[in-house]
Amino acid sequence: MFKTSMAITPEPAKFAPLLFAGDWERGLETAAELGYDAVEVSLRDPQTEVVKKLGQAVLGSGLAVSAVATGQSYYNDGLSPTSPDPTIRARLLDRMKGHVDFAAPWGALVIIGGVRSTFEGEPKTHAAQRQRAVDAIGGYAEYARSQGVSLAIEPINRYETNFINTVEEALRFIEEVGAENLVVLTDTFHMNIEEVSIARSFERAGEKLGYVHFADSNRRAAGQGHIDFYELASVVRKSGYDGYICAEILPLPDSRTAAKLAIDYLRSL
């Protein structure tokens, strides 16, 4: 059996594929009731009171935190490691340190997904934007290493960003940064758009496979679209991966039903 997790957030968010957005108490109760092992927590600002309350509640719930998602710092606040403004990059560094501190008690991963933003402007400026991201994420990784935390680079599809769309690109970026505590997050929704073969891309991640999102082709719970998760589960097992499989999915038809559909399907794999 895979270790299971579902993605929640303590506040309403612009980023849609999250369960119980703004209703974290019910999210934790549902995760525990349905038998999930953990929750992935999408945070905007880890210093807020609601996040502190959430952390204390998780500690008393019997659940773990599998990962901390950080994209809201970009989607809501415009903080990006590619920004030419050093003030923005400094604010994001402080924010990322807070995410790492939140993750540390559980040894949870911190996800570098939407937070890395997208390259803007003329293509000739993209190399400089990439270098700023390499330097910034190297700094996050250094702090995370001191806290026993790894960072997960998540390839995201081309309709959301032009910066790291595939597993191969994520591996190249990790090599460029050069930090040992960087791993790859594979998300099947994005992979269904970008990868020639989802299964082969899981294999390509190899020992750098650090975290997995199972979401179907329509971003609903696994089993509600056309992705062959039985094949992927076999590939993941053969790889030796023993981490979490997380449902980062749309709350359709509603959050509780989506959470139940996801865990029932994961248990069938």
Describe this entry's structure for a reader:
The chain is an alpha/beta fold and about 270 residues long. It has helices spanning about 25-35, 50-60, 70-75, 85-105, 125-145, 165-175, 190-195, 200-205, 230-240, 255-269; strands at about 5-10, 40, 65-70, 110, 150-155, 180-185, 210-215, 245. It has a single domain (about 5-269), classed as Divalent-metal-dependent TIM barrel enzymes (TIM Barrel, Alpha-Beta Barrel). Helix content is about 45%, strand content about 15%. An eight-stranded parallel barrel has the order 1-2-3-4-5-6-7-8, surrounded by six helices. The mean pLDDT is about 95.
SSE map:
Layout: E1 3-8, H1 24-34, E2 38-42, H2 49-59, E3 64-69, H3 72-75, H4 86-103, E4 109-112, H5 126-146, E5 151-153, H6 167-177, E6 182-187, H7 188-194, H8 198-205, E7 209-213, H9 229-239, E8 244-247, H10 255-268
Parallel strand pairs: 1-2, 1-8, 2-3, 3-4, 4-5, 5-6, 6-7, 7-8
CATH class type: Alpha Beta
- Per DSSP E runs of 2 or more residues, the count of β-strands stands at 8
Shape: globular
Structural class: alpha/beta
Helix coverage percent: 40-55%
Tell me the Rg in angstroms.
17 Å
**Which superfamily, in CATH terms, is the homologous superfamily?**
Divalent-metal-dependent TIM barrel enzymes
Total number of distinct structural domains: 1
Quaternary organization: single chain
**Strands across the major sheet, in which order?**
1-2-3-4-5-6-7-8
Low-pLDDT stretches are: none
Distance between the termini: 8 Å
Q: Name the helix and strand elements from N-terminus to C-terminus, one letter apiece.
A: EHEHEHHEHEHEHHEHEH
β-strand amount: 5-15%
Largest sheet: 8 strands, parallel, barrel
